[in-house]
Amino acid sequence: MTTIASAPGKVLLTGGYLVLEQQFSGLVVGTSARFYTVIRPQTDLTAGTITVNSPQFEQALWNYKAIVTQHKLQFDSITESRNKFVETCLKYTLQVILERSNPSLVQQKLSHGIDITIVGDNDFYSQRAQLESKQLENTAEALNSLDPFCKTHATLSTVHKTGLGSSAALTTSLVAALLLHFQVVSNQFTDPEKKLIHNVAQFVHCLAQGKVGSGFDVSSAVWGSHQYKRFRPDILTPIMDENVDQKLLSSSVDADNLNWDNKVVPFQLPPGFDLMLADIDAGSHTPTLVGKVLHWKKTKPEESTLLWTQLGQFNLLVEQHFRELSRLYTQDSTDYNQTIERCSQLKSSDWHQQVQGKVAEEMVSLVNAFNKVRSLLQKMTELSQVPVEPQEQTRLLDACTDIPGVAMAGVPGAGGYDAIFCIVLSNRSKHLVRKVWESWKELSVGPLLSHADSNGVTSVSLASVPGLSDIL
Ligand SMILES: Nc1ncnc2c1ncn2[C@@H]1O[C@H](COP(=O)(O)OP(=O)(O)O)[C@@H](O)[C@H]1O
Ligand SMILES: C[C@@](O)(CCOP(=O)(O)OP(=O)(O)O)CC(=O)O
């Protein structure tokens, strides 16, 4: 039986940096771009052989040996080339599986080896090189013409990532596929099953990256779009050890372990709103940005605390206005749709003067709250001297915000020169935004094709994913 699990990428709309602390939250939106892990039993491999390949990359083939005796696992990497995330996923997820399932079932499923294929939608990786080699412009139309899961002509260490969170989506889809393949979870992915997938994926992701981060990226790979409040780091810090005791690991990641105090409040963009993303070629190194911002925060506790408090309030206001708009839709969808239609034809700065009614008022409040968020991120940039929303990005975002039907434009997550997002109200606005991106000279702006998709981790069939069977 072939097993496939899939997990989405993410965009942190608000809450960058603040979400590292439990008292603040982040608003994260899932993307239509997803990772897929396909597990197929083999008939001709020696017992315990696990082959993993990522066909979009060069030199992306890894072999492992997993020997199970009773509840014990002996796990070795056979190939010289390593993939920290894949290896960590396999080793510790198999240990969790051994604590929760019959060892003879695990042995039987590994008896002739298994083959694992991992792919991510094209949006996870920059397609600039691919487009250049085909002499195509970096436009949405050209991206649309590429094959699904196309080759990047790069290795995993040289590829340019677009910031959708490849390691979190990969980890989550691989953990979920393994738990499903070894029958620890059902293909329904019920709530407690998702909790287990989440907890295992957070552990693996933290161990592989060598630190306990906020975890919003793994959380959105599991739960899709939501308001995220982090877990207390000390649920993981004591087990951040390659030789962690298997029983301790399994009990720590248990769905019923109440020490996991992360909070997930489901969220969806209101009807008529959609997300657009662009990757900026300049790029920033997120861990460096985070290190510098946190260093500044420590040296300037008073000014940073004030900024964090204000930013926290306006981040929450943005979310509240989104939620109120969704509520207004359910109350009177005709009035709501008419207002959105009207707003989609006007610049957001004109909504206040030219559109009336409750929905319009809410739209204006949303824009005002988000403008305040941006001005506070600009203040953070100035005070910390870290380019969270640098001036080049400010100019680009202002140009996007000046387009009719664009409700907001901002830097996602840690900000920097990595990416931008826009929230737009119509296909016409999308088209106009793409035109601005194509003609923008100061920064190289590459469109992504993803839109907002609030679904989290799922089990899927091969036939339901266009292009997937072609790369197996
Ligand atoms: N398609 C893939 N197949 C296998 N491993 C992958 C794939 N995509 C990403 N990874 C893993 O994730 C790592 C990248 O993680 P990271 O630098 O944290 O990027 P991101 O910010 O996108 O999560 C890679 O080095 C690799 O181990
Ligand atoms: C600063 C942060 O709060 C958010 C960073 O979010 P990004 O989405 O920018 O992350 P990358 O995918 O690693 O580039 C750090 C964190 O929460 O871990």
Automatic annotation (TrEMBL):
Top-tier EC class: transferase
Location of the GHMP kinase N-terminal domain: 160-224
Annotated Gene3D superfamilies: 3.30.230.10, GHMP kinase, C-terminal domain
Pathway note: Isoprenoid biosynthesis; isopentenyl diphosphate biosynthesis via mevalonate pathway; isopentenyl diphosphate from (R)-mevalonate: step 2/3
Coiled coil stretches, renumbered: none
Highest taxon above the source species: Eukaryota
PANTHER family in alphabetical order: PHOSPHOMEVALONATE KINASE, PTHR31814
Entry's family note: Belongs to the GHMP kinase family. Mevalonate kinase subfamily.
Name of the protein described by the UniProt record: Phosphomevalonate kinase
Protein source organism: Helicostylum pulchrum
